Amino acid sequence: MRYIENTQFINKRGYMVQSQVIARDIKNPDLIDAMLRVPRHMFVPEKYMEYAYNDRPLPIGYDQTISQPYIVALMTDILNLKKGDKVLEIGTGSGYQAAILYEMGCNVYTVEIIEPLGMKARKILELLGYDKINCKISNGYQGWKEYAPFDKIIVTAAPPIIPKPLIDQLVSGGKMIMPVENEHQELKLIMKTKEELIIKNIAPVMFVPMTGEAQIGE
Ligand SMILES: C[S@@+](CC[C@H](N)C(=O)[O-])C[C@H]1O[C@@H](n2cnc3c(N)ncnc32)[C@H](O)[C@@H]1O
After folding, report:
1. Are 125 and 60 within 8 A, CB to CB?
2. Ligand 1: does its nearest atom lie under 6 Å from the Cβ of 181?
3. What is the pTM of this model?
4. For ligand 1, is residue 158 a contact (CB within 6 Å)?
């Protein structure tokens, strides 16, 4: 089936990018182009399509959400992506973030723990022509060892600590962005050098918790 876009959604998307992304000082032209291209409404349940370009997260079933557009933009921007970067995403969810990464020229590997969500995301990504995105149903706490190391890692569910397997699977010089939940949730940027990990707090956020092993910790 070929996907043909309705102009009403193209207009809403343009407004979303202008008022929620550019107006909040995100100016990376590749990211802006990616957000203008990816049809976000196709990644939400039909009953929420008309709200897909609003300034908020939306339910996608199984108690999970597609993140607010600005948060997707912020996390993507901070990674300072280069074309050809190998990027691991933990928490495929709807598949929207993976499509944005792909549109930015990255080789994308994405892992989802809830099987029906991962299957649905894969289906919609294929329908939209994003069939080169590598999808896996698994516990993302463990990363994706066969394809490691990754230049960048983006985690869209909050573990209580930074998972060691993800640190190990990041290249030296790589960057990882993730929410971490201690007493409160904080979006953290983790930069790995040969000698150390540099961790920077970016903003307080509210993501769904990372499930599976992450609940138990190490
Ligand atoms: C905020 S949603 C993801 C939003 C997603 N990036 C998108 O663009 O729609 C977080 C996702 O992380 C998934 N998740 C939670 N714990 C996980 C784990 N241990 N491994 C992989 N995925 C996990 C959830 O099932 C959920 O789909």
Report:
1. no
2. no
3. 0.96
4. no
Tell which atom from ligand 1 comes closest to the C-alpha of 100.
8
Question: Residue 70 is which amino acid?
Answer: Y
Read off the pLDDT of residues 140-190 as tens digits, 9 standing for 90 and up.
Answer: 999 999 999 999 999 999 999 999 999 999 999 999 999 999 889 999 999
**C-beta atoms surrounding 10 within 10 Å:** 12
Q: Is the CB of 178 under 6 A from ligand 1?
A: no
Contact between 10 and 37 under an 8 Å Cβ cutoff? The reply is no
Q: How far apart are CA 32 and CA 26, in angstroms?
A: 8
Residue 143 and residue 9: Cα distance in Å, rounded? 35
Give residue-wise pLDDT tens across range 100-123: 999 999 999 999 999 999 999 999
Amino acid at 44: V
Q: Identify whether 138 is a catalytic site residue.
A: no
Whether pLDDT at 214 is above 90? no
